[in-house]
Amino acid sequence: MRHERQIELLRRLKDVDPHEPWPLAPHSARNPASAYADPRRFEDERRVLFRRRPQMLGLSAECATPGAYMTVDLGGVPALIVRQADGSLRGFVNACRHRGAPVAEGAGQRPRLACPYHGWVYELDGTLAARPYAEAAFDDAPKSTCGLLPIFVAEGYGLIFAQAEEGEDLTADTALAGAQDEIKDYGLESYVLIEGRENTWKVNWKLILDTFTESYHIRALHKNSIAPTYSTDVSLCNTFGPHPQMIGLLKSVFAEIEKPEADWQFLPHTTLQYIFMPSGLITYQRDHIELWRVTPLSVDRTLVRTSLYAPEAPATDKARAYWKKNLDLLLQVTGTEDFPLMEKIQANLASGALPELIYGKNEPALIHLHRSINEALAASAGCPAA
Ligand code: FES
Ligand SMILES: [Fe+2]
Questions:
Q1: Which atom number of ligand 1 is nearest to the Cα of residue 101?
Q2: Environment class of residue 216 by beta-carbon count within 10 Å: exposed (0-12), middle (13-18) or buried (19+)?
Q3: pTM score, whole prediction
Q4: What's the confidence (pLDDT) of residue 214?
Q5: Pocket-forming residues, ligand 1, beta carbon under 6 Å
Q6: From the alpha carbon of 100, which atom of ligand 1 is closest?
Q7: How many Cα atoms within 13 Å fall on the side-chain side of residue 239?
Q8: Atom of ligand 1 nearest to the CA of 131
Q9: Domain contains 180
Q10: Predicted local confidence at residue 23, as pLDDT
Q11: Series of mean pLDDT values for 10-residue runs along the chain (386 residues)
Q12: Which pLDDT score is estimated for 294?
C-alpha cells in the first residue's frame, strides 16, 4: 500500500475516540433471516454468485510451477486449474470426456492428467493425448473433440480467479474492481504457500464472511483471546465495487497517531481484510497473508479453506514451525470462538422464529457485503432480491 494512502487512512483516525463505537454507515440495514436459511435462495446464490461471477481462488502460489493443479467447486461446477508449461493458467471442467470421472482430486503436481477410471490421458492444456489400449473403440470419436471442457481463468497481482459461466470478460482487473491499486503493492506474486487446511461448518456461507466484516464483536466474543490487542470500537471500511474492505486496528494505532505525521506507520498496526464477494477474503497481516475461501455445500453447510502464505519459503524448521503456529492460532480462535457460535446462529435463523437481522452503522463492511449480494441477486432475471 502506497505510503500516501497509509497516511490518508491514519488521518481518518485523528479526533476519533478509541473508546466509543464509531458509526461509519449513514443508516443501519436489515436482512431477512431467510437470506441465510431458504434453500431456494441458496440455489439462486450458487448459480448467480458462485457460477456467474469471478471467484477468488487463492494466491498464484497455489499452482506455482508447470503441472501444478488445484480442484475447486464453482457453484456446483467441478473445476480443475492447471499451471501450463508456458507459465499461464488454464481451467477445465474436472470431468473426463469419456464417462465423466474427475481427472484429478485435491491438489498436486503432474506432467499429464490421467483419468483414474479407464486411463484416458490429457495434456496439461486439456487436449486428449491417449486412450490406452482402446483407440480403435473410439475411432469414430476424434481425439480433437474429446478435450477437457474449458472454464474461465484469470491471474493477476498474484491472485487467481475463475468463473464457470459467462466469464468471457474475466480479468484480474475486472474481478478486483479497483482493489488492485492497493493489492499490487504487496507483491503477492512472490509469496509461497505454507499450508492450506479445510474444515466444514454447519452454517450458511455468508455467516463465515460476516464474522470478518466487523470488529464490533471482538470485545464480547473474543474477550479472552484478541480483545486486549485489537480495537473493537474503531475500524476502517472501504469499498471496491461489490467488495468491502475491513481494516482491523490494533490498539497501538492510537499511540502512533500521537506522533508527528512524518513518523506515522500504518501497516504494523492493522490487519487489512479484502473481502471478495462472494468467495472469500485475504488478510494482509503484517508479515504474511491469510486466505479464507468458502465453498457452499448446501444452505446450511460450508466448506472453509484457510491458507497461510509467507513472503518467502521457510529456510529452517524453526521458520516453518513459526508459520504453522500462526495458522494453528488463527484456526483456534475462529474454530473455538467464531464458527461454533455461527452454527448456533444458523440454527436460530433456520427456526423461522427470527424475522430479520440488523446490521449496525458501526458494521459498514457488513452492510456493503449484503447490499452487493442482494443487488447481484436482484439484477439476475428470475432472482428476486431478498
Ligand atoms: S471416465 Fe475417464 S477414462 Fe473412462
Ligand atoms: Fe471473530
A1: 1
A2: middle
A3: 0.96
A4: 96
A5: 96, 98-101, 115, 117-120
A6: 1
A7: 15
A8: 3
A9: no
A10: 77
A11: 91 90 90 98 98 98 98 98 98 98 97 98 98 96 98 98 97 98 96 97 98 96 95 96 97 94 93 97 95 98 98 96 96 96 98 98 97 96 50
A12: 98
Place of cell 492447471: 82
The minimum-distance atom of ligand 1 relative to the CA of 96 is 2
Cα 339 to averaged position of ligand 2 atoms, centre (Å): 8
Give residue 385 CA to ligand 2 midpoint distance, Å: 28
Parent domain of 119: 55-169
Which of 137, 169, 201 is the C-terminal boundary of a domain? Answer: 169
Residue 155 covered by a domain: yes
The reply to whether 181 falls in a domain is: no
Q: Looking at residue 119, which CATH number applies to its domain? A: 2.102.10.10
Instruction: State residue 386's pLDDT score.
Output: 40
Q: Pairing between strand 77-83 and 68-74?
A: antiparallel
Same domain flag for 332 and 218: yes
My answer on whether 161 and 215 are in the same domain is no
* Structure confidence at residue 315 (pLDDT): 96
**What per-residue confidence (pLDDT) applies to 62?**
97
Strands (E), the chain: 29-32, 55-59, 68-74, 77-83, 89-93, 107-109, 113-114, 121-122, 128-130, 150-156, 159-163, 192-201, 236-240, 243-249, 270-276, 280-285, 288-298, 301-310, 356-359
Instruction: State the CATH number of the domain containing residue 260.
Output: 3.90.380.10
Within this chain, do residues 17 and 154 fall inside the same structural domain, yes or no? no
Could you give the number of structural domains in the chain? 2
Ligand 1 atom 3 nearest Cα? 118
Closest residue CA from atom 4 of ligand 1 = 118
157 and 234, same domain (yes or no):
no
Gap between the Cα atoms of 62 and 289, Å rounded = 13
Q: Please tell me whether residues 101 and 2 are part of one structural domain.
A: no
Are 243 and 367 within one domain? yes
Cα 114 to ligand 1 centre (Å)? 9
Dist. CA 84 → ligand 2 center (Å): 38
How far is the centre of ligand 2, averaged over its atoms, from the C-alpha of 324 (Å)? 20
